[in-house]
Design goal:
Elements lengths: L11 E7 L4 E9 L5 E10 L10 H23 L8 E7 L3 H18 L3 E5 H13 L5 E5 L4 E7 L2 E7 L5 H11 L8 H9 L13 E2 L2 E2 L2 H19 L7 H27 L3 E5 L6 H13 L3 E4 L2 H4 L3 H12 L28
Helix pairs in contact: 1-2, 3-10, 4-5, 4-6, 5-7, 6-7, 7-8
Length: 356
Amino acid sequence: MTQKQPRWRGGLLALGCEGSANKLGLGVIHHSPTGEVTILSNVRDTFVSPPGTGFLPKDTAKHHRVHFVPLALRALAEAGAAPSDLACICFTQGPGMGAPLTAVAVAARALALLWDLPLVGVNHCVGHIEMGRAITGAANPVVLYVSGGNSQVIAYAERRYRIFGETLDIAVGNCLDRFARTLEISNDPAPGYNIEQLAKKGGARLLDLPYTVKGMDCSFSGILASADVLAAQMKAARAKGEDTFTEADLCSSLQETVFAMLVEITERAMAHVGSNQVLIVGGVGCNERLQEMMGAMAKERGGSVYATDERFCIDNGIMIAHAGLLAYETGFQTPMEESQCTQRFRTDEVYIKWRD
């Protein structure tokens, strides 16, 4: 895979539009006749809420509406492409937050009508997986998909991405983000990133937190509640001038616990399907400690871990363009009357016609 920007020779171009949460991403991708994938542009703008708060759907949707047109024009300009060069407009159809999803879908429909191009609705999770496979070259890995809204262990079989295990309540990224609010950590550039940086300063004290694995599934709400209690105890002790653990200790302990759970269910899936490859995708996949822990497990099994950097693991338009174009090349299109978004678009609902 290349990220150079030569003029394309044959093949197809697509514009991808992603806005399932607080990140608005647009990108243009090129698939050559021989199967080479070239990223022509990948631009993003993030809605950042004040410390101690989350992002509300209505505010996030407003952000996406305001920034969509400038970002789309920038994506085309950086790609050196005109609307007439595009084969299709790809957009995130779900899962995600309803209001921002709809805001971007409306904009994508408008472009499709304005430029007389077909629409391709894309499953957000499948976008992450296909982008990860393209960037890393992983052939047939077990996939750990971890983000603010999703936590799933996935493996491919018979034209579907099968879900082997998932969260029973909140996603691991949501757990980390909400704990950042408890500590009133900045949301810029991302709460999970700032949790990670604090965790690097801790580790001297591993605090006791619930470890909740149920078969192949995980639960994170109890861990979050316990971490919130410990944070309150820390603040109370500090107010009395007593010696206590630190924010860094809390962040490190929370990471160690939730990541150990994810490593456990991923290893179990690897054993079941007989794979020695792990591909980590989604925003939490950028976390260096998660990659380190997963790498240690995979090494013991004689395997390897594949992950991408923040350009591709964090929500972006290019992953939607790539997965959408893969589907379009098999003849798939989304009729305008079927282009509504759904917050509960399951990964295993998608027929993966482009894979054997």
